[in-house]
Amino acid sequence: MDIRQLRHFRAVAETLHFGRAAEALGMTQPPLSQSILRLEQELGAPLFLRTKRSVALTPFGAQWLAHVRTALDGVGALADIARRLRDGEAGRLELSFVSTADYSILPLLVRRYAALHPDVEIALTEATSDVQIAALLDGKGQAGIVIPPAEGALSKVLLYRKLVSEPLIAAVPESWLAEKRLSLRAGKLPPAQLIQVPLVIFPRRSAPAFHDLVLDYYAAHGAPARIAQEAIQMQTIIALVSAGMGIALVPASLRNLARTGVRYVDLMDGAPSLETGLVWRRGDATPTLSRFLAMVDETLARA
Q1: Does pTM top 0.90 for this prediction?
Q2: 165 three-state secondary structure
Q3: Burial class (CB in 10 A: 0-12, 13-18, 19+), 155
Q4: Residue span of the structural domain in which 201 resides
Q5: 10 and 158, same domain (yes or no)
Q6: pLDDT single digits (tens) 1-54
């Protein structure tokens, strides 16, 4: 059977008159009658009870009509669905992000995009910057929020846009402050205090720019970092600080991650800033991605 036969059946079923149905369809009655006969033969059961004076649906035809209407409505909607997919009003956006972005720029971008395009499915995946970049180079996903590698380290296949830059602060065990193992000055942590205690940090392979930023801060103040533990998720790093394993230098937005036993304090003497940005494949014309990039531009322009 084809779509035309289904439309022929619906027209006759709704008018119960072959002549009026043929007129509504813009055809003559004989071809319509032949179309219905062929359809009945294909189905192996009559759809109509015909007499010289009337046409009625058989019980089988009456039950089948609801399914035919649903199918034809679905076909009728295909053109609009195609338009919405083409224009990025529907579809799927695959976005990965580093754990630090979960407390800064990610919620704002996702909230705004979802409000503008409620029919787009947003698939979020948390991953370290190196994993995200490798996936994009492998053709997976559409965009990632990353801590950028050193200038020139991104492949020419990828494009990058800065989203936010924020100072690092110290996440310290509250018990260390209570025990005077660390002392603040005007509410800030002096470098001399910082370099004396163990450090919890991202491994360099996962976020080399972040790792080097922290170690360079230590070096600038005359001592190497005493790395006690490494972890790839910010939640894990903060949990290790809470357990007294060490302190951590984290983006200021991590104040949004409340954790019992952890206190966030500013650094003295020129805290370094950590940049976070968006990366995507050059030439990717996926409509949902194009709309996301436009929304990002608008959001940054407002900031």
Answers
A1: no
A2: strand
A3: exposed
A4: 166-274
A5: no
A6: 889 999 999 999 999 999 999 999 999 999 999 999 999 999 999 999 998 889
